[in-house]
Amino acid sequence: MRVLVLCTHNSARSQMAEAWLKHWAKVLGVDLEVHSAGTEKAFVKEEAKRVMAEVGLDLSGHFSKTLFEVPDPWDFGLVLTVCDQAKEACPAYPARTEKRHVSFPDPTGKPLEEWRKVRDALGRMARFLVEALKEGRLPSDEELRQAAGL
Predict the structure, then answer these.
(1) Among 3.40.50.300, 3.40.50.360, 3.90.226.10, 3.40.50.2300, what is the CATH number of 2-148?
(2) Which of 17, 103, 112, 136 has a CA-to-CA distance to 128 between 20 and 30 Å?
(3) What is the pLDDT of residues 17-33, one digit of tens each?
(4) Domain spans of the chain, in order of start
(5) Which of the residues are catalytic?
């Protein structure tokens, strides 16, 4: 399955979610191709790189991109939006796909502890999603929110 994580700027939450999904797919032996993108292009925030490095996940090679910069952008089995602004833009996604939405708080401008809370919630949600996909099922938005602890 191909998974696309969408956020507004592809600078923090979607980047962290991409890294977590790739991590859990590898750990759990699930064949996933994961990409992230933003409705607008920006840059990967240093705080995101820092808090992900704390858990051994490296975002140093990541860069912000729009949907049109990911490979085969209209062929994703799942599009996961992780902020409300991206969800509003997502209904225009013309391809047939499953869509899920979990709104994570934006940690921008907040202390690193807030970044860590968002990182950990994304990690819990990503693990739950990959475990469900391994079982052959796609969880609901509510199940993903509960797994994240939101």
Answers:
(1) 3.40.50.2300
(2) 112
(3) 999 999 999 999 999 99
(4) 2-148
(5) 7, 83, 90
